[in-house]
Amino acid sequence: ADLRSQNPMCGIAGFVDTSPRPGCFAPLPGMVNAITHRGPDESGMWQDEASGVALGHRRLSILELSAAGSQPMHSADKRHVLVFNGEIYNHLDLREQLREHGKAPIWNGHSDTETLLACISAWGLERTLKAAVGMFAIALWDRHRQTLSLARDRMGEKPLYWGWQGATLLFGSELKSLKAHPACTARVDRNALALYLRHGYIVAPHSIYEGIGKLPPGHYIDIPFRDQFSARAARSQPYWRMNHAVQAGLADPLACSDEEAADVLEQQLMLGVRGQMLADVPLGAFLSGGVDSSLIVALMQAQSGKPVRTFTMGFNDERYDEAPYARAVAQHLGTQHSDMVVTPEEALAVIPDLPNIYDEPFADSSQIPTYMVSRLARQHVTVALSGDAGDELFGGYNTYRLAPQAWRRIQRLPPALRHAAAALLGGCASSFAMEGLLDGLRPLMPARLRRSANTGKMDKFADLLRANGQEDIYRRMISHWRSPETVVIGATEPSTPLSDATAWPGQNLPFEQWLMAMDAQTYLPADILVKVDRAAMANSLETRVPLLDHRVIELAWRLPLDMKIRHGKGKWLLRQVLFRHVPAELIERPKKGFSIPLAAWLRGPLRQWAESLLDESRLRREGYFDPMPIRQAWKQHLGGQRDCSTRLWSILMFQAWLETQ
């Protein structure tokens, strides 16, 4: 095996039955096989009849591994048994540290799984997690302490669900593994459903099922099974926090010139990309032609002796098609580029598969092109690098300009007047009174709303006028449904970092910095990384995200705000690094995002499908939603009065998912 070898990407699953009996391990093969797509090349299982522990693993082979790399894997002293999904990019450095301190075992192979076990034996789990650079989900059984430990990487690139179902604790990379165990009741959590309608995704630690949660990013949990009370009372704890990285970075800002800052950032990114290019199978990258993906590809090509494989998917609608921009960047960098223009029919054919791919309701419609570009890439490579996270770390989203702008203008009105104006806007949707009120409010609106103040946008502006503060402004801006508890019957919406001030990174943070910190803890792990992981793994493709190297994250938070957002444009310093490799004229254009013409599709080819799922009698019979606001949104969307596609998609994705349960 190559001395660089890392563990293959894969999936994990297992359980601890606190009342073991004959036949209790029978569900394990089904749990493991439920995630075959995450690791189609090999499976492994281990069980301990006395303790009721069962560990399972699926492998997607990325590097040439000997049998010594198979999982579940035992530590050299036989104390620990590990199943592991992910990559530890610095595992050779960790081996060297063990050797220097006389802690290295006699190695059986060259996998990072064995490295993890050796580090855990020498240092313990928490120190090992802090030392590891990578993405991972870990389940570790300690035979001496009779303790199961679960751990997840700092940013949540790899998923990990867990929870008690009766006397059995279940865990796995995807919910379908947990559902394969008969103890799993799979009851819909209405509170989590309300959270889903707010965001279009479900934030950790919640999941769509009662009693099942997601381990939060950067956390681990020790569950001691010698004491049943202690086992059920166990709570996860952090070994790394985004908020701490934010606070540390702001307390120690990078004090240097723009050029020096670009040098520092480029060097750190080069190291991160280099570490994530290690593979003994074909490797490539997603390329949209935007800042983030172009930068990652440029740094890959700068360190590669042959053309990098790059992949883009476009639409035959130029409003959504980024393929020409990606081709231009690929041609400049000299990559071996593949793209495909997808017809609406091809994209629509993916929709029936989405509930199974995403495993719980998920309403980011860019899930469709993400799945399709992953399928394209998998025809040529087994590993693809992605440019995700640049927006959240370097201030790329338009919201980081629009939200502060909106709050500054709205603040000019006294609260009583704001609420009165909001009430008027809500009550005179298309009358002359609306026109008169718009004339008076236009100076207060963000520029984008002011230029095209139609009924739908003014409805959104009316909602912003009701905000209690700048944080509430943002929450309202990103909400799919403003009041999910009025839509989901019998629900109480749980708090999230966006709504819980105790979860914020500190006081007196510039609003733009607060927005980035909140997105990095909610939208990034619960939407972006879920979307990419499930779409890629459904195609047995491994994805890697160099910008999520925690050393890049910590450096990003040391950068002054004006190195991120300058002259009204985000990702300023990232652009300066990119322009060392790619001419600015190939990159500088309005941001499109990776999207589909959803609004038009719902009025056209998806109308019949949507009408069936949104049927009023069906909604009443199923009993999860109040049909009235949903039917009203559907009517307004079909009539063209408002674009309700985002709200409707969240309902439709739940309904489609519910059909599969």
Molecular structure report:
This protein is α+β, with helices and mostly antiparallel strands. The chain has 30 helices and 17 strands. Strands 2-3-1-9-8-10 form a six-stranded antiparallel β-sheet. Residues 1-8, 429-442 and 448-454 have low confidence and may be disordered.
Structural class: alpha+beta
Strand residue percentage: 5-15%
Looking at the structure, what is the overall shape? globular
* Global mean pLDDT: 91
Strand order, largest beta sheet: 2-3-1-9-8-10
Helices, by number, come to 30
What is the CA–CA distance across the termini? 43 Å
- Report helical residue fraction: 40-55%
Quaternary status? single chain
Backbone CA Rg: 25 Å
What ranges have pLDDT less than 50 throughout 5 or more consecutive residues? 1-8, 429-442, 448-454
- Overall strand count: 17
* Largest sheet report: 6 strands, antiparallel
Topology at a glance:
Blueprint: E1 9-17, H1 28-33, E2 42-48, E3 53-60, E4 73-74, E5 80-88, H2 91-100, H3 112-123, H4 125-131, E6 134-142, E7 147-152, E8 161-165, E9 168-172, H5 175-179, H6 190-199, E10 213-214, E11 219-224, H7 228-233, E12 237-238, H8 242-251, H9 258-276, E13 283-286, H10 291-302, E14 309-315, H11 323-333, E15 336-342, H12 344-348, H13 354-358, H14 367-378, E16 383-385, H15 390-394, H16 399-410, H17 415-427, H18 432-441, H19 447-451, H20 455-465, H21 470-478, H22 511-521, H23 523-537, E17 542-544, H24 550-556, H25 572-578, H26 598-603, H27 607-613, H28 616-622, H29 627-639, H30 645-659
Parallel strand pairs: 13-14, 13-16, 14-15, 16-17
Antiparallel strand pairs: 1-3, 1-9, 2-3, 4-5, 5-6, 6-7, 7-11, 8-9, 8-10, 11-12
Helix pairs in contact: 2-3, 3-4, 8-24, 9-24, 9-25, 10-11, 10-25, 14-23, 16-21, 16-22, 17-20, 20-21, 22-23, 29-30
